[in-house]
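job 3f2a | input accepted
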Amino acid sequence: MLTGPARAMVLAAGHGTRMRPLTMHTPKPLLPVNGRSLLDRTLDRLAAAGVVQVAVNGHWLAPKVEAACRARKHPRCIYLHEPMLLDTGGGIVNALRAGAIGPGPFFTVNGDSLWLDGPSPALQRLTRAFDPRAMDVMLLLVASPQVNAYQGRGDFFLEADGRLAWPKEGRVAPFVFIGVQIMHPRLFEKFAGGAFGMHPVWAEAIEAGRAFGLRHDGGWFHLSTPPDLAHAEATIAAGSFAETR
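job 3f2a | predicted structure (245 res):
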């Protein structure tokens, strides 16, 4: 029987500036998509994957994030307030020190990530593909041309064996990180805490040959602005992607 991580973290502390005015009074992870918040959609998928405990951090409009966590019965949500933003890496270190995630591999999901599963649930695919003996982190990726309204230069290359590689300066990378990953706590052993992002963490894992990527086989929505959110709602409502499989 496939057994995945029992713990996870949802990163929900950002300001969601580009999503204003919608985020003036509602944290971005609590914005609804067809009647259900981004946070609840993520927690539902984590629960379906067997996760029993989720750390959720908050900063902007924090009482609303905390209340949403308290309203969940399953999975169990542990709210971690950040008086000062710790960024992605710092938020994860804070959760590890609080005992809210770990000691084994755990999922980490960006609070504004909206994905739809393909033939098999994405979290189960990550669980099957992740080998903690050879890997420290595995990111869920989509091909850049598949992302509606995406104007960036991509994030990563994938080697033939699935290892991640940075794009060389000036080059466009073919894959975009969609905010869903599985990782081992040892990734953060060299980081003292404070505010820092994931780039230096990924960089160490890539240098060690222990950072991998998995191509997502379902749908994903790049949610940056209100029109992005409206597009996602319309696409899902039209049945262009199935909500569940």
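job 3f2a | The first strand starts at residue 7 and ends at 11.
job 3f2a | closed
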